[in-house]
Amino acid sequence: MEPGASMGLMESIFWNDLLLEKIFSSMDLETIKIVRLVNTQWEREARPRFAEISVVLVHLKHHADRDAVQVQLDLNKQPFHTLALNEDIKLALNDQLASFRNFKLQFSLSRDTIRNTEMLQEAYFYLNQLIQHLWRPNASLIHSLSILLTIKFTKKLSDLLTSIISGCNAFSHVEIDPKGYVCTVDTSHLPKMSCHTLRISHTKSSFEDLTRFFSNLVNTKKIVFDDPWLGNLDTVVRAIVENGEQFENLEEIDIKIMTELKQIRALTEMWGLRRLRVRSEDEKASGNAMTALEECVTIHATTLEFLHLDFGKTDGITDLCRFQTLEFPKLQRFYLKTNITFGIALACSVDILGLKESIKNGTLRKRFPSLKRVEVVGPYETDFPCLIPVNISDLLPKYGIHVSGKLLSFGGVTDL
User: Per 3-state DSSP, what percentage of the chain is helix, strand, and coil (rounded to 5)?
Assistant: First the structure.
């Protein structure tokens, strides 16, 4: 093809609305943010995808003191509008958020607002309006427990809170991130709160308070423990188990632990998980910690469909957990990342599942009848890799298993 013809073809692609729409439709958020900056046409074509996957931070603030009351609405941490008395929040927003469907809601009350029943009712009135306005089909909502900041209930407050909770429950996906705050007021007269994803950060709450809080949740399918200094995992898990009926749909745990990986043993008290993600930053994980992880994975092996193990910092580890003969009848995807110091890597096997041996002795499909994808990120300079080249080349044609990942070395990154 002549250079001029080639350039013409490229231009026809780069300026074709239908092709651009197709290309942009599968991009992630970071990539779509970049392509929006290329030119006005790309920004226009990328706009629907950006609105589809981005999250808008909506912050409603009710501040009262002796002199005045101010109700402020911020969008993405920028002041948007100060509401006048009895102003309809829907009219104030107009179609500003019409193209978006993923929202993170923050609700702030001043101390004087909380203490004054009339002001509190006004704040919840605006919040109710806002939630009704944000709802749309297939929309998602992230919120904290700040909607329950009230310390007293009147009939009108209870009615407003009932409407607010029902409005939140109407969203297709709801994530609750209490940020360490656990509501201790009695909310038994209110509807239970839909919580498809529960994000638990650092909390020092008692077993009793956690149990009471969890009893107010329904439809929880995923729990994210995202706390670099998580200190009471056992207490949290016991409170979850105590509310077994509320968590009967639980199928995924995503946990990050900075220290004390041995805490993971607490998850053995839970029931059959379908997806388990463990991200360990414990640099000095001991043999006891690896034993705890082995026990955790073994308990859920019969139901796991996705297993994600990420050993981010492993400077002091001389060995990893082992599942050399364990069967995973439903496992479809396995992800393993090891960032082992290269000196240690020479003597440390990263073949956690015993894949090489299973291929060699013909038991791979017996142990992993549903396995479809393996992704490995780890050191290149190791005498005991997860897979060797001959395994990688055979897995797809012989077993229908896709292999991907990156091997890290002093010289750079090698794609599998």
Answer: 35, 25, 40
- As given in the structure block, the two tokens for residue 379 are 């050191």
Q: Could you give the C-alpha distances from 21 to 29, 47, 54, 101, 181, in angstroms and in order? A: 15, 10, 17, 19, 42
Tens digits of residue pLDDT in 62-115: 988 766 788 999 998 999 999 988 889 989 998 888 888 899 999 988 888 888
**DSSP string over 320-348:** ----SS---TT--EEEEEE---HHHHTT-
Indicate whether this model's pTM tops 0.70: yes
Contact present, 91 and 127 (Cβ < 8 Å): no
Residue 174 has which token pair? 């709801």
Strand partners, 224: 199, 254
Q: How many CA atoms lie within 13 A of 293 on its CB side?
A: 28
Q: Residue 133 is which amino acid?
A: H
Q: Which residues contact 229 (CB under 8 A, 6 or more apart)?
A: 202, 258, 259
Question: In Å, how far are 216, 247, 294, 379 from 135, measured between CA atoms?
Answer: 22, 25, 43, 47
The string of pLDDT tens digits covering residues 19-34 is 777 776 777 767 777 7
CB 169 within 8 A of CB 194: yes
82 Cβ neighbours under 8 A, 6+ residues apart: 70, 71, 72, 73
Identify whether the C-beta of residue 414 lies closer than 8 Å to the C-beta of residue 407.
Answer: yes
CB 25 within 8 A of CB 89: no
- Strand 69-75 to 78-83 pairing: antiparallel
- Residue closest to 128 by CA, chosen among 94, 89, 92: 89
Write out the two tokens for 19.
């092709």
